[in-house]
Amino acid sequence: MDRIRIVGGNALNGIIPISGAKNAALPLMIASLLTDDTLTLENVPHLADVEQLIRILGNHGADISVNGRRERQSEGYSRTIHFTSRTIVDTTAPYELVSRMRASFWVIGPLLAREGRARVSLPGGCAIGTRPVDLFIEALTALGAKIEIDGGYVEATAPKGGLIGTHYTFPKVSVGATHVTMMAATLARGVTVIGNAAQEPEVQDLARCLNAMGAKISGAGTPTITIEGVSQLSGARHRVLPDRIETGTYAMAVAMTGGDVLLEGTDAALLETALEAIRRSGAEITSTESGIRVVRNGGDIKPVDVVTDPFPGFPTDLQAQFMGLMAKSSGVSHITETIFENRFMHVQELARLGAKISLSGQTAKIEGVERLRGAPVMATDLRASVSLVIAGLAAEGETLVSRVYHLDRGFERLEEKLTRCGAIVERVSE
Ligand code: UD1
Q1: Which of 156, 172, 213, 349 could form a disulfide with 233 if both were Cys (CB 3.0 to 4.6 A apart)?
Q2: Ligand 1 centre from 176 Cα, in Å?
Q3: Other Cβ atoms closer than 10 A to 335
Q4: Distances in Å between the alpha carbon of 38 and those of 83, 167, 268, 378?
């Protein structure tokens, strides 16, 4: 099994091209099931999760072709992928496919809206909490679906004539349930109003793409989304927005190691709250024409408290990385996790590098140390794994991160991007 070997201590200097957002690409790919026409997505990152979803969509009957010609963006690459689901050949998403990635559960929305039925295995994904599906079930039930759970599968059936527009307010903000409800409502009869919707940029990106396909959605990016149902959707061409989590991760890496890096092809508006926290820690961050420039030259890393929250709050997907940064701050900071109840598994691994962190309920207290020292560590989930990589970059000596398949789910060509900026990072096979 592969491991990542890091020799820490080098500052990062250069250009890092930011990939298309994994968390936008996945729902956009799933939206292709809503039409028998071709949906073309540009700027799709090359990641294990994307490949897995390609397999899942293929199982439902999608014909998928990846452009042989790769699009050049400075030194980074992205792919253009065409998805055509002329007919849905299977409305079941089996356990073997869905259990590896939670987002694959989201096919339930388009399958139900287009075919009137779906049978989807209960999901898997990162072990960062119980992550139930009650909100999906409530919202789809509000759209008129009949739902049963049987043998580990959610079986959903639409009424004769299709789903029916509704007013539904989520009791809790959920990105996935917002995506699914929005997709399902595009083909429902009448108007659907979603209250307490997720406002994440990826929800806005999905709405833009669905509208390009002929949907009538307004309000995405606010807590209230209105969808006027249409009888069918067509194909479209859409460019996946930049990955704000990858952006924030590399910004934190520079804040930690020092240096001067241009994060190319990304946009500060996607992650203002996180960038503000990094600025307060002592890095300079400026927007340029081609992206975001992050600079830290000497000076202490200042302690900063953060609380994760749904967008526009501090993203839970940057919590582990920020904890890595705070581990080397000059004082005491607190990080509170409000989205997932079990998202502190990186704490004991960061401790192996010398971090001083104690947990009390959902809050971590981090006492900054002057030096971290390299050690063997284990990746526990997608975002936790990258926090270990960036902490390793700022640690003295060698860090070996095992279980790197977590990283491959969400970070495109991580070693290459970091190496080009002067880091010593390599993949070693055993
Ligand atoms: C998405 C992101 C993930 C990010 C998360 C929160 C993708 C592919 N994944 O995950 O990277 O960490 O948003 O920003 O976009 N919940 C329920 N019942 C439900 C659904 C969710 O209680 O039916 C809870 C979850 O357990 C969690 C909270 O709601 O505590 C938020 O989860 P949600 O926004 O749904 O996360 P995902 O969409 O799975």
Answers
A1: 213
A2: 6
A3: 25
A4: 5, 31, 32, 41
If you measure from the C-alpha of residue 45 to the centroid of ligand 1, how many angstroms do you get, rounded to a whole number?
Answer: 21
| 3-class state of residue 137 by DSSP | helix
110, 225, 238 from 218: Cα distances, Å: 19, 6, 18
Give the pTM.
0.96
Residue 403: count of CB within 10 angstroms of its CB:
17
What does the block give as tokens for 115? 């075919």
User: Which of 133, 174, 387 has most ligand 1 atoms within 8 Å of its beta carbon, as the pocket-test mutant?
Assistant: 174
CA-to-CA distance for 166 and 227, rounded, in angstroms? 10
First-to-final CA distance of the chain: 6
Provide the token pair at 201: 């940029």
Tokens of 256: 């930690």
Q: What is the pLDDT of residues 264-294, one digit of tens each?
A: 999 999 999 999 999 999 999 999 999 999 9
How far is Cα of residue 187 from the mean position of the Cα atoms in its chain?
26
At residue 124, the pLDDT reads 59
Please give the distance, rounded to the nearest whole angstrom, from the Cα atom of residue 8 to the centre of ligand 1: 33
Nearest 10 degrees: Cα torsion 116, 122, 128, 131 = 60
CB half-sphere exposure, 356, CA atoms < 13 A:
11
Amino acid found at 209: C
Which residues does the annotation mark as catalytic?
A: 126
Whether residue 128 is predicted with pLDDT greater than 80 in this model: the reply is no
358 and 343 Cβ atoms separated by less than 8 Å: no
Partnered with residue 79 across adjacent β-strands are: 44
Enter the tokens of residue 399: 């860090």
Q: Is the dihedral of CA 144, 150, 154, 155 positive or negative?
A: negative
Best probe residue, ligand 1, of 29, 134, 137, 339 (max atoms within 8 Å of C-beta): 339
Pocket of ligand 1 (CB under 6 A): 23, 26, 102-103, 129, 131-136, 172, 174-177, 202, 316-317, 339-340
Residue 233 DSSP SS3: coil
Q: Per-residue pLDDT for 73 more than 80?
A: no
CA distance 253 to 16: 12
CA-closest residue to ligand 1 atom 17: 132
Residues 216-253: tens digit of each pLDDT: 999 999 999 999 999 999 999 999 999 999 999 999 99
Mean pLDDT of 109-119: 98
**DSSP label of 34:** G
Atom number of ligand 1 nearest to Cα 179: 38
Cα 72 to averaged position of ligand 1 atoms, centre (Å): 33
